[in-house]
Amino acid sequence: xxxxxxxxxxxxxxxxxxxxxxxxxxxxxxxxxxxxxxxxxxxxxxxxxxxxxxxxxxxxxxxxxxxxxxxxxxxxxxxxxxxxxxxxxxxxxxxxxxxxxxxx
Length: 104
Description:
- The chain is built from four helices and two strands.
- By secondary structure, the protein is mainly alpha-helical.
- The longest helix is centred in the N-terminal third of the chain and has 31 residues, at 13-43.
- Strands 1-2 form a two-stranded antiparallel sheet.
- 71% of the residues lie in helices and 8% in strands.
- The chain starts with a helix and ends with a strand.
């Protein structure tokens, strides 16, 4: 590690700039991918997997646009009613921090 530190310190600024720019690009890409994944998790009802900081932002934006939230609830209710009417049981997976179990 000391050798790597010394190598980094001995690089010229224009040589370091290449790696610094790559790191910044990766950071932006990571943030975009995390936002996309968290949005998807909220859409499918898995808010438990989303960071608390993101959830509080989501709740604020959802409070501004309640009609979209109501529409998704109605769609979920229709799906549940259709499945119940057909007589099919829906298997859901419930996960906790210590174990995972399946319920029917």
